[in-house]
Design brief:
With 231 residues, chain A is an alpha/beta fold. Chain A contains seven helices and ten strands. In chain A, helix 3 packs across helix 4 and helix 4 packs across helix 5. Chain A is globular, with a radius of gyration of 17 Å. The chains are: A alpha/beta (231), B alpha+beta (847).
Amino acid sequence: MESGQTHSVVSLRGVERSYREGDQTRTVLRGVDLDIQPGEWVALVGRSGCGKSTLLNLISGIDRPDHGDIWLDGVNIARLSERERTLFRRRHIGFVYQFFNLIPTLTVEENLLLPIELNRLDQTRARKLLAAVGLEERHAAFPDRLSGGEQQRVAIARALAHDPLLLLADEPTGNLDRKTGEQMLQLMESLARTNRRALLIVTHSYEVARRTDRVLTLENGRIANEDTVTD
Amino acid sequence: MVGVVWHANFRFLSRHPWQIFLAVLGVALGVAVVVAVGLANTSAMRAFRLSSRAVSGSATDQIIGGPGGLRERLYTHLRVDAGIESIVPIVDGYVEAKDETLHIVGVDPLAESGTAGDLAGTGAGAVRRLLTEPGTLLLGRATARRMGLKVGDSLTIRCAGRRHTIVLAGLLPSAGAAVAQDGLAITDISTAQIVTGQIGQLSRIDLTLPRGATGRRMRARIAGLLPAGTRLESARARTGTMVQMTRAFRTNLTAMSLLALIVGMFLIYNTMTFAVLQRRQLIGMLRAMGVTRREVFSGILVEALFLGAIGTTVGVALGVALGEVLVHLVTRTINDLYFVVSVTQLLITPAPILEGAALGIGATVLASLTPALEASRSTPASAMRHSAIEQRAHVLAPRLAIAGGTLAATALVFLALPTRSLVLGFAVLFMVIVGLVLIAPLMVAWLSAGACAVVVRMPGRSGGVLARFALRGITASLSRTGVAIAALMLAVATTVGVGVMIQSLRVTVRQWLSSTLRADIYVSVPQLDPGRTPQTIDPRIIADIRRIPGISGITSARRVTIETVRGPTQIVAVDFAPGRTPRFRLKEGDARTAWADFDADRAVLVSEPYAYHNRTRVGTDLRLLTGRGYLSLPVAGIFYDYGSEQGVILMHRQLYERDFGDHGVSSLGLYIRPGMSTTRVITAVRAAAAHRQMLIARSNRAIRSASLKVFDRAFAITGVLKTLAVVIAVVGILNALMALQMERSHELAVLRAIGFTPGQIWGLVTAQTGFMGFCAGLLALPVGLALALLLIHVINRRAFGWSMETVLTSSVLIQALVLALAAALVAGLYPGWRMARANPADVLREE
């Protein structure tokens, strides 16, 4: 662990990522620097295709940067092996997606049990979290029997089931109506913010961004703008 | 359908090359097996017919006699006394030379042309040498080249244990099919008589008679001139009868090849279903834009035809290559069990290729009908939903199971019909197979649900959710997993069914050998053609053997093949060693009275296949044409016998010698005194025969082991076909798994995002494939047993007339489970590796 990285949950320095597209190389991120403090909520905005999801994948360790360092809770995951990154992600990261990404062949409760079993935690957490998101009675239902809002509530519960250090959300309200989206944010606030879990949320919505502590704008592969939300 | 829509469909296919490859491979392998078996069968039979025609030329009729053939003077009588000119004397037999089996045919070069004696085209010098120099022969060019012989070279040939040196006088004219001359050696009559030990005898007399009323009049006249024990027969009918002998063997092979094709059909069905499922969005969009159902239907069918055509073309090429291997196995079995046929090359005839092509394309279209209908019937909205197709699969599964059950039950009703039709037997077999296969998807759904319920109740947390994920994945994609499991189940069930049948027959044959082979040593004359009467042992050698110290008793036997209206029939005339009661197990008849009547020459016994094919019962009178006219004797008992599928008539040697006038002995069974060394007696027997005749003297154990070796060789080809069916099924499972994992790549990427390691993903895929293999193995057991029972009690009975006990050992069943599991796991290796290696970021980005 290097000095200077201890206070941030997330710390990125000079992160670069490019992709090959046929004969051409498309650079998506060109030296991103970023710090997120414990319990801090940060919104990431930018035009479609500007690299927001790529940044989320790099922070979660799903993808690896071409250059630069990514410190998570004092560990430089850019230097870890594939397996080490996976195990780190398993323990410390929670993911919420726009399209919920629930496993259709598992029941609501079993979807929650996935991270719980992986981390060898107490299985009763699943029912407690379902009660917290108001879906305890639907524990045996399969995802395709739930509404969009209900599915996203399950996805949020699954992302928090193993009490991660950092919650990453990729347009979690993008596929929901405004009222349901609002309910989701409230739910995340009640479950994550109160436990001082850090959140990095990708969004196009001003309403969503307004609820975070800081809004970062990604432009031309760099953090171009940083606003503190003051209400 | 408009061009752009075609483009959309074909581009979809071009983006899934592995899927196309596996589908084409499935069709190709299925077609290859059918074509290969067809070509091998046709080649062997055509070679036999051509060589028969090469020997008998344009002969329309043949005069044949008893076990010893015809007396030479009959020919002189017919030609000189009766003035019948269009007749040719023939002496033939099989000899061994330079590791080749040659069909030696003695002819009269001066006889009428157009028959076997027609040597037109052969050099005058060669014919003159044949006529004037004893111990000369003519060979086909290819045979001479293969044996490394030039005109003027001498070679040593062996026949009936005796050696002869013979000179190659010339080559046969190269006109006509080379295959007809393959292995054919022409000599003059006297040389053939010396070499084959038929001094003063002819094998037959060939006749070329005109058609119509003149021919009929001549036939009637000649028949009137023939002595007792000889018969006039149509040449074509006789060749047909020989070919007919192998019908059951060839039908069995064809049925096995069709099984491989059925397994291949599952693969096509799976591919086409997957192709439809993958394109549900495209089809939905096309339907929304106004593409009609008919256009969607025809589009899928044309695709299937395209794949079928490529697969069939590749399959025909593969089939020809595989046929080269199979033709040797088929020929070897025919040579072991029926008659000598020499096939040095595969004859590529259009019929098997056209049959294979029609079956390949037909199977492809048939297997694609359901997916094409599924695609065309869906509404634009439902076509976009994967769940709609899977829901239909779940609704369809119980209906298919009911239909399958009904089909299997109907098949069993057919069994009750009073018929012995082998084709109907196979129809029943296929109906039962298809019926049980239709039940498979429902069973898979039940097994998965049951396993899931068990996993849910399992204590502890390790892998619980993972196991449920793997199991539910199988049920969730039942339209494909069900079909893939059914294909593997069918292939494994085939190995169980055929395995149990072979094991049952092997155990039965082993028991039969140990109960019938009672002597300590068996002595016989080497025989090259199982369909002919073996040569006899020199009586002087028999006399010397009787004087060997340590021999307590000798059973002597004469095995002859006689011609009857139903084709060649074997008579075994036995004189049992005094005090050695025969141990033939009787199927019908009272053993005590049967053997008493046998000993008193009052009756004969017949083998089970003879009784089955000739509808003979105990008490039936048999009429046999002997040298003294017709002999009529009742059947006193029917005994179990697995040595000949045509059947055997067992009579006392005394009776045989009296009525057939043949005093030869073709084999001896020696009983040795206790404490005497078998090896020492065998050495003494060989010494007695030395320099006079080559005899085979084998211990009881050695002859049993040799018999079982021939048995195993006969089933070698079945093993090849069985393996091919499993290979096709593995390709099917691989195809289904690739499709399944590709469809679930998004879910697997989510799991990776949650924190599953690549190893865990691989484990998940492996668990899923393992369970699919387990389901296939488990379901294959009852289906395989049903198959075995049908093969043993219906197919074998109708084909060969054998009855046997069903021998079931746990090893066959365990092997089936292991095979199914291993096949599925091998098929799961690549998809598992691919999925574990997939970058979740790429998959999630595609979202």
